[in-house]
Structures are given as structure tokens and as C-alpha cells.
Amino acid sequence: MTSQDSNQHIFKRLKLVCVPLLGASLLTPASIPDVLKYLSDLNTILLDFKASGIILTPDLISYTFFPLSTLLRRNAASDIPDQILEKIFFVLSILCEDWWWDCDIAIWQQLFTLCGAVMAGIDGKEKRRARADETKQAAGECLLALLCVRTDQSDSNALILSDRTQARLEVLKTVTGSDQFLPVLGQTLDSLLVTVDTPHLPLQRVSLSILTLIIGNYAPDGFIPSVLPGIVSRMTRIALGTSTKRGWANGEIVSGSLEVMQLAIVRALGNDICAREGAIHVILKLEDLVCTTGTQPDQSPSEPRPFATLRTPSWLRGTSSQLLIALNTLTPLVTHPTPSALLAVSRLSITLLSATSMTLPELQPLLIHWLLSLSNSDFLSVSTESRKSLSSLLMTQSDAQVSLQHRLVHITNDSLSALPRLLLTHADTKVEHVAGLIEAICRLVTPPGEAEEGASLISNGIGRLLGPSGGIEKWGWSLLSVLELSAPQFTFNTAFSGRLMLESNTDMSQWEGFPEIDFKNISSATAKTALERMFRALGRASGDSCLFSVEWFTSVGRNGVGTRSITAIWCACRLLEGVADISLNQVNGTGIPARRSKRLTKLVRSLVRSIAELWDEPDKTETMESIVTEEDSTTQMLVHHAKGINPLHENLRITNHTLAKPVTTNQPGLHRLLSLQFFAVSAGMLQAQYRPLLLYTLYPILRSLVSPDVCLSSTALATLKYVAIMTSYASTANLLLSNFDYTLDSISRRLSRKWLDIEATKVLSLMVRFVGSDIIERARDVVEECFDRLDEFHGYSIIVEGLVEVLGDVLDVIQEDKRNDPLVSTDPSDEAEEARITSMESFFDWLPRRHQRSVEEVDTNSYGPAPKEAWGKNKVSEPDPAGETVGVEEPDPNADLPLTPIQGLTKQIVSRSLYFLTHSSPVIRARILSLLASSTPVLSESALLPSIHYAWPFILNRLSDSEFFVVSAAASLIESLATRFGTFMFRRIWDDVWPRFRALLNHLDAVDATSALSRRGVSAVGTESPYTHSHRTYRSVIKTMTAAVTTLHLQETCIWQLLLAFRRFLHGEAHEELQQCARDLYIAVGKKEADAVWLVLSSTMDSTHVNMKFLTTPRWNISSNADIIFQNL
Q1: Residue 974, class by beta-carbon neighbours within 10 Å (0-12 exposed, 13-18 middle, 19+ buried)?
Q2: How buried is residue 753: exposed, middle or buried, by Cβ count under 10 Å (0-12/13-18/19+)?
Q3: Contact 258/338 with Cβ under 8 angstroms?
């Protein structure tokens, strides 16, 4: 189909509607429905053309427009219903899409005037008529189609206006800027400023779009200053949503209103237009400076245009002050919940900063604050856009570049000075805001190697602020005076001591987080996080320039343990984290460390050594607190933050409430906690170069690890793991083993008469547990150190207890290492269990032949020639060259094997520990007994039994000890000896131990009868809790006798007493654990003396046998346990 045929087809379709519409152009009540139908059909036809991509020719558009114009001319505006007028505007808006290029100027003006009049409600000579919002919206859509600038579709780049578009736009600008049309334009703007405040959202959107086009393209330059106050006032109200019931506007409306305001301000107060009209004088060369001195202000042109406002210096001063007041009211929009509104605020700020840098310098602090706040937004698009825009403005050569850079440095200085005042008032939101501003400024500094001129200027400014000339003594001391830290309150689900022991099979490479530090005057977690990020950002932005501040904070922190010193260490840690670009909340040790300057490395090493010396000094009070005198207190405003009500006097007399002077509290635990964090930060910074510093820091870390303060010990554990990871050790055990000599030397120096640290023994014990079996090779050094200190401090129970605990830990490690080795018994009774003799026939066969010698069987087989003696050098005699015979002594097969180094070390521990069996401290006595029990599986018979024989009287005396846990430890030792060395313990068990056990059982039975912890029930035995001393003693005694019965020869008298003594533990009311132990005992006896077990248990349950009636005890219900025992015999 050709173009002519297509146009003919379009014409025919339009003719079917336009002709009847023209015939019904004079509206009557009867024709109104027909007109509505024709208009609806015409609208549908035009929409179909638009959807098909058909572009109407100017002739077709004129043909379609003619019946519409006739309808409007023949009828008064008041006689046209809203529905018909609305449909007319819809049709006109579609026609204007293609008519913008060729529409006659007179028709364009008439349509503009008509749309503006309808929106303003003055579309007739009658009194103002209120049109419906939908009708006004339709008029607005038509006006928007008239004003919208089209792009030439033949142009590949639609963003660049073609010459044709630019020419058409200039023609329309000439029309709207003419003196005759300006009143219409002004009236239209006034009506749009009214309709933009409507609650009808579609009309509000259309009004904002029209305002954007008129202000941006069609309003003349001289006309904008005249309407600027009204536009700013109304757009401010619309953006804040003060006229709505909900009190806020959605993001789309905020964005549209701020765009209108932005265009109006830039066109009225832009640098270029004000410079052309003389409101400001731009100095670009020396001649401009000379001209400035001779220029008279407020010169105006000779012929001012009507409706125009002249731009003069006085007008600029007045307008800028009013504009600053208006824009200040928009500050709440920075926290708007929608990203579209936040992006609009960002665009407004960037545009005004770049376009009005010389005309509105007073706005720069406000706009910069907005951009910095938006760069911290939770919306990624908003924060990214704001940061990129501000960075681009700072890095690009412009009139605003230098002034903005200086503004940012001043904002940083002012914000740091304002932080102490905000902290005093407990304004967490303001503290978070100010800290966020500083962090945002620091983020503008690019990383090293990529720094540009603008970023380097900011970095240098922050560096000067944190350097020697930055006045840190003023703002830093004020900050330390108000920022108070406190240790967090810990609540653990499991015992923390179990975590600290950390057995050798624990995964020590697992990351351990550092405890969070709380602030006394900051209750918001976000404000606290913002402060931490602020200090890190300051360190990252300033680099080595902030090392003076780090050193100053550290010096304050070293001179006491009060609140100021604690806060100073915290600030130094956060600054160092920023300099090193690390964080204690995450591990960065897997990556390649950044290059550190020699100055930074040297300073950190010096500070680490100085802080490590704090563990060498006794706890002292805060000495730096006295520096602040009454003069300081008068210069600072004292703010008292109190909650609740003032207490009344006892007699209801209301007294004056006076503020007490603040009392400085010392917190050495928190001070050491932050010092450990400083060690961790230094390790993260130096990494492999930190290893030499372990000589100074390893003992303080381990010393804190054994602290009773849970927060301090958990921080020490996290520090130890962090240091191990950062220094490239596979685990903390490897770190301690590699630096074993350093740690042992540190412990040794702290266990001398000149310098005594009671907790040093706990550190040594903990180190043994950490390292585990790998410490066996170094165990001799530990043992020698312990015994040297025992010889020196044997009169101090607490030191002896700690050293004995270390020896016990060493033996536990050795025992754990030997546990998987097969146990080689040296007792002949262990080779074959003695079988019970059931017949005498073998004895009678042997008796007649007892004096006969056994005849060796002679092998009569011939094996050929064979050597008569062993080959090699191991012969009975060997002639030497001199002719003499030298006898070679054969090894004694019964001689003991030489002791291994571990066995020799264990023997030394045992022999030198026996003297403490009679120590006055029951804890030490119990530990020595446990130590001997641990050495039993390690040492051979010849190595251990002489010491046991020597100490046997002392061991027996421990069975009569006043402390039950000592008795339990002694019974455990006897159990292990009986299990390992049966022949040696045979007589000692039955002659020495069993009588004492019988007396002990009787004594415990009498004690339990009067104890409040005894079990309640019929003839109940023992106590309710398995953790009482009597229960543990019962268990140890039963297990000891079970081991003795299993490994030793039985003695009938003692066995009978044993079976009678332990019957009560088979009672069903006894504790389940004791019942199980008693069943094991009777089963062990029953394997050797089944008849005796059966007789005792059956006689206890019933009195069938008259002769055994004395054993019957009805109060003990042992039937269930007896059945189990009989089944196992």
C-alpha cells in the first residue's frame, strides 16, 4: 500500500466520525450523548493509529482538529460538560504528539491558553467555575503534549537536539517570552502552583511535569527571578507533604517538586546568568580585578522589560538568605523512606553545588551535609550515586572544587569538636549522624596509588587534624573525658572454664570473635558502630599522618587504668585498624599484606613493647586523672543525665538536689582487655614481622587467659587465635611450641623472690594443656623449673599447689600419649590367671615322682654337618692375638630394661613429689596422690614400686584423712596400683587397706544418718546427689576393691567381710551409680568364689537356712540386683 493509499484509508476512517461530530457541534441536551459517542470513537481510532505506528500528516491533523475547534467555538465554556471537555482534551493530546512540529503558532497559543484556563477554572466569562480534577488532568495532559520537546526520530542520538528541534523550540520560546504572552504564562504558572497541591495524585504528577517544562524550557530568563519565591515556597511545602493528612509525600512527588525547585534556582541564581547581568563579578585575569574596583554596584539596564526582575548584588544577597532558610526546612527529606526521594535530594545538592558555587556560597555546608548523609544511606543506589557525584565534583576542575575541599576539612574539624558535647547529652541519633559525616568524608579519599589532587587535599587536611598541629590535646582530651566504656555482661550456656582448658584434640584454628565493648553513655548499637567506623575511616584516610594521634592516645592509655586511659587505648586500636585496613571482626590473614611504611612498623613495635610492660607493673590508680583541674571543669558545660524521679527526704522534706563530683573508677580488667586488642591489631598489621614481639606479648596473653574475669579471658583466647592466624601458625599449639623457651623464661622470671606472680603457675599449666603431647620433648625443662621453684617456695601453699598442678598436667599429657600403647605387665600373676583347684588327682600323681629327675629327650635325627656354637662375635670365649681367652658376659635375661627418657622424667617427678604427701594443704595432698596414680601406667615395677614402698605409710594415713576428697584420691591410687602390680599389693590390700576401708564405711554410714543430704526412703543408703563427698568416697572404695578382687589372690576371711560390708549398696533405694559399682564388685568376686556370693546374697534375702539366719536383712531390697549378679556367674 502506497503512502497516498494509506492516507486515503486513514481519511475515510476519520471522516466517518468527524462529519457527524461536526454536525452535532452545537450542544443540546439531546445531542450530548451522541457527541460523547463520537468523541470516544475518535479517541479509539487515534489510539489505534498510534499503536500501529502511523504518523498523521498535518492535513489529516487539521481535518480532525476542525470539528473539535468548531465545537469549542459554537458553545460557551460553561455549557460544555466536563465529560465532553475531558474527551476533547484527550483527542487533542494525541493530535499534538505529531502536530508539535507543524502546528500554527496562533493555534498553539490558543490551545495553551485554553488548557491553562481550564486548569485555573477561568475558562469562561462567568464567575470562576470549579472543574473536576479529572477534567483538569485531561487539560494538563494536553498542555504537556504541547510543551514536551520532541526529538527528531532520524537522529541516532535522541539526547542531543537536532537543528530542526532546536529551531522549533526557539520559535516557541519566542512566543512564550513575548510581552503579550507573558501574562498568560504567569497565570498558567499560578494555576499550576495551585493544582500541584491537590490530593488528586494523577493531577499532581501532571502539574509537576508541566512546571518542569515551563521552568526549564519556555520561561524567559528575566521572568524566573519574579516567580522564584512562589515556586520555592510551594515546592518546599509539596516536598515536605505538610498539606497532606499523613504529613509526608511519596517519593515520586518529592522527586518532581525538587526537580522544579532545582531548575528555578539554577536559572535564577546560576553563576553564568548572574555573571552576565552583573550580580557577581568573576575574576579570571588581572584586568578583571582592576575593573572590580571601579564598578558601581546595583547598576541596572536602561530599559527593564516588563514582568522581569533585575539581578543585582543587593537582590542576590536578599534572595540567597531567604533561599537558605527555605532549603533548611528540607533537611528532614534526607531521612525519607523511599530511594527516589533521596536520589532527588542528591541531584538537587550536586546541581546547586556546581551551578551556584559563586552566587550561593552559604548553601555549601548544608548541601554537603546532605550529600554526606546520603552517602551513608542504607539504599545502595542512593549511597553509590551520592558518593560518586560528590567525588566527581571534588576531582573535576571547576569553580566549586577548592571551596568544597576546604569545606569538607572544616566539617571534619567541627564534627570532631562537637562529638563531646553530643555525647554528654546522650543524643545517640546526633552522635551517629556526626560520626557518619566524618566517615563519609574519609571515604572520599581514594586508596594510595590512585590519589588525585582533590583527594590528596582532603587526606592532607585530615592528616593535619590528627597530626602534631591538629590540636588533639583539645578535642582528643574532651572526647576522652565524656566517652566511657564498660565491659559487656556475659552469659554462657556452658562452663567457660571448659573452653579455656582446650584439650589437645580441640580445633584451635577455629575463629574466635572478640567480645563487644559497651559504652556507658551510648545506648544505641548503631551509634556505637558508627563511632568505630569513624575512627577506622580517619586512620584509613590520613595514613601515616595519624601516627601522632595513635602515639598520643597510647601514652594516655599507659598512664593509668581509669576511664580516660581505657578510652584512649580503644581510640588507638580503632585508628590503627584504619591505617592497616583490618578489622578484628574478620580475618584478613589469607591475603597479601599491604606494604607498611618503616615509620609505622617502628612505632607499632615500640608501642607493643611499652603496653606489654603494663603486665610487669602492679595495678595502680589513674594518675592522669589529676591533670584535669577545676579550671577544666569550669570551661566545659557539665550536663547531668538522670532518669526517674528525685528521692524525697525521710520526713517528706524536699531537699535541693546537688550534683556530686564525678568519681573516676579504675577498671584494670577492661584496660587489659583493650591492651590485648591492641596486640591483636598490631599482629594483623605486622603479620609475619610480629613474631619477634611474641617475646613480650605471649606471657601477657596467657596471663589474661587464666584470669577469673570471663570477658578478659575470652578476649585473651580470641587474641591468641588471631595472633596465631596472622603470624601464619597452623594452630595456637604450634605457636606456643615454637615460642616455648620465651614463655618458660617469662614464667621463670615471674617466679622469683624479686618478682613473684602467683598466677604464673596457672599460665604454665595452661600452656601444657594447650600444647598437648608435643610438649613431651620439652617436659624436662618444665619439670626442672617446677622443682626449682618448689625448693624455693615450699612454704607457700598457693605456689606449691600451682606447681604440683603443672606436674600433674605433664603426667596427664604423658599418660594420654601412652594410652594407645599396649600395656606390658611385669607381674607374673598377669601372665595366666590362677585357676581354682577342683580335684586332687594331679597332686597324687605327682607325689610319688617328685624326686625323679626329668630325662631330656634326645633328638636322634641326623641333620648333617651343623655348627656347634653360634656364629659371630658373641661367643663364650674368643682367643685374642696374645693367646689369652677373653670371656664375654652374656646379658641377664631377668634384668630390667633401661628407662626411656619419659619414664626417667616420670620417676623423677614421683620421687621428688613424695615429700608433699604430708603437706598441710589437703588440696596438695590430693594432687600428689592423683599424680602418683597417673604415673602408674607409665613406670615399670622396678621404677615405681620402691617409691611406693617408701611412701606406703603416708598413703595409708591418707585413708584416714579429714577431707573426703583426699581419701577418694588415695583410694584411686590404690586401685591403679592393684590393677597394675597385683603381687606387690596382695598383702597390703588385705592387711593394711581393707581394715581401714571397713572403718571408713562404718564412719560414713554414721555420718549419712545425720546428714541433710541423705536419701529419703525405707533403709535408704547414701545421699541424693552424686557430687557429695560421701558418695564419691563410696564409689572410690567400691572400685578399689573391685580392682583388688580382679587382680589379686583372694583371702577368705577378708572376702567374707567384703561380701557382708557391701550388701547395702545392692539395695534398690541406693543411688544407681553405687548399685552398678556394687554389682561389678560381686560379679568379680563371684568369678572366683561363686558359692560365697550365692550364700551371702541368698541368706540376706530370706531365712530359709537356719544357720545363716543372722545374715537376713529384710530392710534391704536386693532381689533385682542379686538376679543380675546370679545371671553373670
Answers
A1: buried
A2: exposed
A3: no
